[in-house]
Amino acid sequence: MGSVQAAGSVRARYLVYFQYVGTDFNGVAAVRGTQRAIGIQNYLEEAAERLNSVVPVRFTISSRTDAGVHALSNAAHLDVQRRSGRPPFPPEVLAEALNTHLRHPAIRVLRAFRVPSDFHARHAATSRTYLYRLVTGCHRPDELPVFERNLCWALQADCLDVAAMQEAAQHLLGTHDFSAFQSAGSPVPSPVRTLRRVSVSPGQASPLVTPEDSRKLRFWSLEFESQSFLYRQVRRMTAVLVAVGLGALAPVQVKTILESQDPLGKHQARVAPAHGLFLKSVLYGRLGAASCTLQGPQFGSHR
C-alpha cells in the first residue's frame, strides 16, 4: 500500500472523493501559469500543501468537468510522502485535514481510502454517472427561484413529452460510435463508447421554491451511465433529447443522428448549458491486493 522512498520516508497513495458547485470555476482541472482562471484542482492542491509532504502533492482527477459543471461526487488519487519516521495519514485524518485547509466554500472532500501505489483514479474507474436537471414552467429568467439558478436548465416550455424522450433514449443505449455527440477539443483514440443506462424521469420537487412556484414549475432528471464519455457527450445528448421532448425532433431521428457520426449536423451541434449538469458518481471495481470495492457516497436518483 506504500513504497519506501529515499531517507526512509514512505509514500502512500489515496483515493479521495470530493464534491463542488462548479459555478465559480474554470472546470475541475488545475489552471497552471499566470492565467486568472482557477480550477477546483488548484484549491485541492493548495490545501494539500499543508500536509507537509516531502514531495509536492498532485491530484490526478478521475473525471474532468467543464466550467460551470457541478459534481455530487468526483474522485482523484494523490500521493503523500511524509518525513522519515512518520506513519502514513489514516484516510479519515487526510480527508479532515484537506477540508480544514480548503479555502473555497464550494468544494468539500467527502471520503478518502488507501489504495495500491499503482492505482489510477481515471483508468481504474468502472462506471461514471451524470445527472442533468431540467425545469419547465419558467418563461422568463427571473421566474426561476434564486436558489435554483446555475443548478438547472430552465426551458421556456410548460411541459415535455417524456414518453417520446424515453423512446428516443433507447436508441442511444449500447455500444456505438458516438462521434455525432462529441465536441472538438479533446481528441481520443476511439469515439466508441458503451452507454449502459439512460433514464428520463420526473425530478424531485425542489425544497428551495415557494409553494406558489412549485405549482407551476416542474423538475426533470436525465441520467447517463457509462465507463467513460466523450468530450461534452452528455450535454449534447441532453440537448437532442430535450429537442425531442419539445417536439422539434421525432424519437427515430435520434437514431439517424447517431448513425450519421456527424458532430456538425443541424440538431446534434446543440449543447445543453453547463450549469444543469452534475457528475453524480464514479465507481471502482475490486482492487486486487486491496481486496475491496471502492465507491463514493451514493446519491438519490431525484425521482
Automatic annotation (TrEMBL):
Q: Which residues form a coiled coil?
A: none
The UniProt annotation places substrate binding at: Y130
Kindly give the Pfam families that the UniProt entry links to this protein.
Answer: PseudoU_synth_1 (PF01416)
The EC number(s) given in the record are: 5.4.99.12
Q: Which residues form the active site?
A: D66 (nucleophile)
Catalytic reaction equation(s): uridine(38/39/40) in tRNA = pseudouridine(38/39/40) in tRNA; a uridine in tRNA = a pseudouridine in tRNA
Q: Which GO terms describe its biological process?
A: tRNA pseudouridine synthesis
Q: Which GO terms describe its cellular component?
A: mitochondrion
Q: InterPro entries in the record, alphabetically?
A: PsdUridine_synth_cat_dom_sf, PsdUridine_synth_TruA, PsdUridine_synth_TruA_a/b_dom, PsdUridine_synth_TruA_C, TruA/RsuA/RluB/E/F_N
Q: Which SUPFAM superfamilies match?
A: Pseudouridine synthase
Mind listing the UniProt keywords for this protein, alphabetically?
Answer: Isomerase, tRNA processing
| Domain of life of the source | Eukaryota
Q: Where is the Pseudouridine synthase I TruA alpha/beta domain?
A: 19-122, 168-284
Q: Does the keyword Flavoprotein apply?
A: no
Report a single Gene Ontology molecular function.
tRNA pseudouridine(38-40) synthase activity
> Which Gene3D superfamilies does this entry report, sorted A to Z?
Pseudouridine synthase I, catalytic domain, C-terminal subdomain (3.30.70.660), Pseudouridine synthase I, catalytic domain, N-terminal subdomain (3.30.70.580)
Q: Which family does it belong to?
A: Belongs to the tRNA pseudouridine synthase TruA family.
Q: By what name is this protein known?
A: tRNA pseudouridine synthase
User: Which species is the source of this protein?
Assistant: Rhinopithecus bieti (Black snub-nosed monkey)
